[in-house]
Design a protein that fits this description.
By secondary structure, the chain is an all-alpha fold. Helix content is 85%, strand content 0%. It has helices at 2-21, 26-45, 50-69, 71-93, 102-119, 121-146, 148-154, 160-178, 180-199. It starts with a helix and ends with a helix.
């Protein structure tokens, strides 16, 4: 169960950071969100090798540096990630045939929210980081509460990278499809709370 605990701690910790402190820690949150986003997406398309993790880390660092020197580009990226996450969740609620267009839906919704975010940057950073953080917290917490046995079964003994790969694929795939409505409702509720908390912070 150790890989499950580590996986959940990483995802939930970064999610909390982004959801409740995203505006204050924008650049750090952006790098962390991109890192996790790339890691979770690449996990389903690769064998979870060390090279995949190295690429994810490198892309996260590059994105964080870009956001520091190109604020609007960073805001667009947060909006894009938020839109892609929203597109993923909405697709889980649509008929099975819609899953064939998952990539297109995620890209289109990501672009739309990314462009809107660049125009209304401060509000977008608040809402975007709150939503992105919530989208990491809610599915993983619900999976830990509702499907602990399935999480344990996804672990590959003696291989942390492969375990992360399998856990990410399960939470983002089979679990999200089975519990699409509670995941979406929970994510929206937590994102609203996170956005309000950020709005009340100074600085």
């Amino acid at each position: 169960m150790e890989p499950v605990i580590v996986y959940l701690l990483v995802n939930v910790s970064v999610g909390v950071l982004a959801c409740f402190f995203g505006r204050r820690l924008f650049y750090l949150a952006l790098g962390a969100l991109v890192f996790l986003g790339v890691l979770n997406v690449s996990a389903t398309a690769t064998d979870g090798s060390a090279a995949s993790f190295a690429i994810a880390v490198a892309l996260g660092v590059v994105a964080a540096l870009l956001s520091k020197f190109a604020y609007r580009a960073g805001v667009f990226l947060v909006g894009f990630l938020t839109g892609a996450a929203l597109g993923f969740l909405v697709t889980m609620l649509l008929p099975q045939e819609a899953s064939d267009f998952l990539g297109v839906i995620m890209v289109v919704s990501g672009l739309l929210l990314g462009l809107a975010a660049a125009r209304w940057s401060d509000l977008a950073v608040r809402l975007g980081t709150a939503w992105s953080g919530a989208s990491f917290i809610v599915p993983n917490v619900l999976a830990a509460l509702l499907a602990p046995a399935a999480l344990g079964a996804a672990v590959v003994p003696g291989d942390m990278a492969a375990s992360f790969d399998a856990l990410s694929a399960y939470v983002g795939g089979e679990f999200a499809a089975a519990y699409g409505t509670p995941v979406l409702v929970g994510t929206i509720a937590l994102a609203v709370i996170g956005s309000v908390v950020q709005a009340r912070q100074k600085g």
